[in-house]
Amino acid sequence: MPKKRKSRGRAKGGKGRGDIIQCSMCGSLVPRDKAKKVTAWVSLLDPQLSRELRAKGAIIPRQRVIKYYCISCAVHHRVAKVRADEERKFIPRY
């Protein structure tokens, strides 16, 4: 059977079994090295209020939010793109 991708869709190399995490959108269980990780900084204040406070010189606290998406959710939410056949296939070079 031909290989569709060189890495088989994983980033683990030869490490063996990886951790399993839950997708932030659909809740499916996905290996950590296969999931797409998205880090975002979220402010707890209203954007209008934070803009006014920042203009006055205040420091606005914010939190780092880490989300993991399965491949289907990542493609749906445009975190990952579907690549062309030539880009994703494995071509052995002997």
CATH architecture of the domain at 20-79: 2-Layer Sandwich
Specify the number of helices: 3
Rg computed from alpha carbons, rounded to a whole number of angstroms:
19 Å
Q: Which strand order spans the largest sheet, edge to edge or round the barrel?
A: 1-2
What's the level 1 CATH class of the domain at 20-79?
Answer: Alpha Beta
- Work out the helicity level: 10-25%
How does this model look, in words?
- This protein is an alpha+beta fold.
- It has a domain at 20-79: first zn-finger domain of poly(adp-ribose) polymerase-1 (2-Layer Sandwich), CATH 3.30.1740.
- The protein is 21% helix and 23% strand.
- It has helices at 47-56, 71-76, 85-88; strands at 20-22, 29-31, 36-43, 62-69.
- The strands form two sheets. A two-stranded antiparallel ribbon has the order 1-2. It has a two-stranded antiparallel ribbon with strand order 3-4.
- The longest helix has 10 residues, at 47-56.
- It starts with 19 loop residues before the first strand and ends in a 6-residue tail after the last helix.
